[in-house]
Amino acid sequence: MNQPQAISTAVDYVSLQQEALEWQVMLWSGEVTTEQQHAFEGWLSRSTLHQQVWSEMKTVQQKLQLVPQTSIVLARDKLPSAKRRRLLQMLGLAAVTGGAVPVLRQSEAWQTLAADYRTYTGQQEKIQLADGSQLMMNTSTAVDIAFSARERKLVLHEGEIYITTAPDVTQARPLLVQTRHGTATALGTQFNVRLKQHETRVSVYEGAAKLQSYNRLHSLTLASGMQAGLLPGALTTATSNGNESAWLDGKLVAEQLRLGDFLDELSRYRVGVIRYDQSVANMRVSGVFPLPDTDRVLQSLLQALPLRVDYFSRYWVTVHAA
Amino acid sequence: MPDPGMHHGVQQQLHHLYSHHHGWLNAWLRKKLSCQHTAADLAQDTFLRVIISDRRPLPEQARAYLTQIAKGLMIDLYRRQRLELAYHEWLLHLSPVEVPSPEQQAVALQSLIQLDKVLDQLPAKVRETFILSRFEQLTYSQIAKRQGISVGAVRKYMLKATQACLEML
After folding, report:
1. A138, A159 in Cβ contact below 8 A?
2. Which chain B residues touch A270 with a CB distance below 8 Å?
3. Are A67 and B34 within 8 A, CB to CB?
4. What is the CATH classification number for the domain harbouring A295?
5. Is residue A52 part of a domain?
6. Total domains present in chain A
7. Is B117 part of a structural domain of the chain?
8. FecR N-terminal domain: from which residue to which, for each copy (chain A) (predicted)?
9. Is the pLDDT of residue B109 over 70?
10. How confident is the model at residue A290 (pLDDT cuts 50, 70, 90)?
11. In angstroms, rounded to a whole number, what is the distance separating the alpha carbons of residues A22 and A72?
12. Beta-carbon pairs below 8 A across chains A and B
């Protein structure tokens, strides 16, 4: 009796793999409805075999996330044979390329690369979660979705998200965002969470949110219109919201902002680096600037302030005093 | 490394192939590549391919057969170098804190090379559809519009490409 059962398991596995492929293709459509998301989660929770098959799919997802967009462009055009031959003649030259690349370690980088949802520099994406909540991702953002029977947890590894929660009708599980600085739990609410280097900034736009520091010793309920910073062992004093959510409208808003801070903010949306002289860092900028066209923003700065912008390459920009 | 279980006749055949052809193949590759170390590596790899595959060329076809394999390996090497270069160029444009660790770079580069192979064997429309979806973040309706095909066709192409990824990545 052992033999037929082994065969039927193998058959199951192949057909499950086919199902996993179909689910993956559906989930990648960019147009997933809540019902479809629910249906997928139902499928996934059916058995450990389902989850095992899906984990293969996750490996594929992770490998794809590791590949930078610019480097894959090369693979797009299959070389015609005549071109191949000419390229082969150039091989002698190609063989001497390569060399040292400056490298800096970053502990969170792996999680960032392998996260469930990811945007790259200059991208924004809207995601509909299984419970009907909506997640907007700003530039360079990585989020893991960890929904369980007890809670609806989002782990923010990098970047910025804006959440519009939907009430969990069936189970009333809390929705919370976790970062390396602490957690923000939604209390029926819309809020923005931005992970910065030294703190996580939470701004509430509707309802309220409960903040808790990473060491769980400090907590605070933040009302609508207020913001505060999460730190590993503390919370900052709550203040009124500024323009934290302007990115949702594709805008960068500055009100008497230091130029240095403005350029740092702008460089979040730009591939490469923006450097500036200390002599210009304290100039003040005001205005509403369109994202993600950072070139246009730099050009409009030139009209407002006595500046000069040098482009060493598309990826390296320096701002000087004129 | 000879397989201990390998048939004696096969071993002799390979030995004959190697002793008669390794010299000129190495010289031919050196002329093409103008780097003797790379040439020596590729010559070895060429024979390795012959050993791994079960095909044994007839003596009069040996030269053509070996050059064909060697050319394929040169193209692989060239593509690999192009991909490495593109990847390193991308790294240079990152701010220092964004640069991944050497281990992550190695993993990413390996994924890139594998994905390049996967894409290379797909029909152009399938490849383009997959890249637009996964690397330019277009929705299926946007891809359908851009490619002038139906959303159903986009799904079909994505299924094909994803299956290839699952098998090869």
Report:
1. yes
2. none
3. no
4. 3.55.50.30
5. yes
6. 3
7. yes
8. 18-59
9. yes
10. confident
11. 24
12. 164
